[in-house]
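Subject: Sanity check before I submit

Could someone independently write out the structure tokens for this chain? I want to compare against mine line by line before I put it in a report. The sequence has 257 residues.
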Amino acid sequence: MAQEKIQLIKMDLIDRPTKVARETIDPEGIRELAESIRESGLVQPVILRPSNGRYEMVAGDRRYLAHKLLELKEIKAIIKQLDDRETIIIRGIENLQRVNLSASEESRTYLLLKTEGGLSLNEIAKKTGKSPNTIRRYLDFAVQPEEVRRAVDLKKISLNTLETLLEIEDHDAFKYHFDMAAQNGVTDKVARLWVDDYFKSKAGSFYSGDGGAPSSNIEMEAKPVFVTCEVCHGPTEIKNVRNMMLCFDCRNKVRHK
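---
Independent answer below. Compare away.
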């Protein structure tokens, strides 16, 4: 296969992509990349496509921003004739190769590859090296409300824990447990106990009384949840836990030291 031609393209002729899966770009990462380019030059050219007499960035946006930081006038580029679908695919694959992607950013990339790139689950798996099951999990996560996705992005709750809680189909019951998890932090094991307890309560309401179907909105009773204190190793309610898992007595001892 013939080697693709590398050209020098003027920076002021390049437009950044309008559809990106990444929500933020780390300024410190761009500065470090700029220093690397200053010392060693640009190793990997950016990929552009012609657009109304100008060029649209397809892959290499961070390299482009590093060049702007260095106030360089030109950048090494490969020009490709690409349609929108091909552009989405190339851009998505590059996004997934970056580090520190949030769960929302990764899920949005898979969603773009599926909806606008027209790729099936198996095709995405082949191109990204991820399992179809992993991609399916992130596609399901992509359609969750912003409040839910943000809690996972901020690591207030893990994706595994969220998936466990999502087994609770009642909206009010789910929100109750989700808020508890996001505010206090829980392990997957605790989340599983909560879900099992929910279904036991639901089954109990089904077989009680007149035997009618359970209400769609189960009234949630605030039940104590216990964890192990990291100092005395005794049980303590999760509402008394802060950064360390201290029981109430140990926390008072620490305060008075």
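---
OP: Matches mine. For the report I'm noting this point. The first strand starts at residue 7 and ends at 10.
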